[in-house]
Amino acid sequence: MTETKSSKKWYVIRSVSGKENKIKEYIESEISRLNLQDYIEQILVPTEKVIQIRNGKKVNKERVFIPGYIMVQASLVGEIPHIIKSVNGVIGFLGETKGGDPVPLRQSEVNRLLGKVDELSVQDENVNIPYTIGETIKVIDGPFNGFNGTVEKINEEKRKLEVMVKIFGRKTPLELSYMQVEKV
Questions:
Q1: Domains of the chain with CATH codes
Q2: What is the pLDDT of residues 140-184, one digit of tens each?
């Protein structure tokens, strides 16, 4: 009894926050243990890529952007909802009335969430421009590490700043990336 992909709807599973990926693995292993892969199309933890600076180094991290929620594209027939709910860390399905059936997401909601996931995976380097012209910044990377300077120009496309730094009493222009400076 296989089903077409179109008959599977997207549902949202509420889970313990901070354990989404672990719970996703638990659900996947339970589904394959019970040989129910025909009913579950995919399980997705919506994440976004964020750039953090740790000890002066750029670190790309994935962060869950809707903590406590896991999306599942499935055909919830028979025991499937019960099996998913019995997985450790799963609180239940979103939109279900007490003891009622899980409510599937509307296609527009699915598109918005999946669009956001795609968008975020593409624009992983998209750090917003946190600097303004005339602002004083401190260089935290490169040969001029530790110098303070003033933002003269902002080049959004190249993601660079032109900064005037006083070196040996003379103002010197430097071109630095956003990641090489921080606000004072």
A1: 5-122 (3.30.70.940), 136-183 (2.30.30.30)
A2: 888 888 889 999 998 877 778 899 998 888 888 999 888 888 888
- 137 vs 161: CA distance, rounded Å: 10
With CA atoms as reference, report the closest residue to 59 among 71, 50, 72, 68: 50
Residue that has been written with the tokens 């997401």 in this structure:
105
Please give the torsion angle defined by the CA atoms of residues 49, 53, 58 and 64, in that order, rounded to the nearest 10 degrees: -20
Angle, CA of 101, 28 and 74, to the nearest 5°: 35
Which residues share a beta bridge with 15? 90
Q: Is the pTM of this model over 0.85?
A: no
Lowest-pLDDT choice from 15-24, 65-74, 91-100, 101-110: 91-100
Dihedral over alpha carbons 24, 28, 34, 35 (to 10 degrees): 150
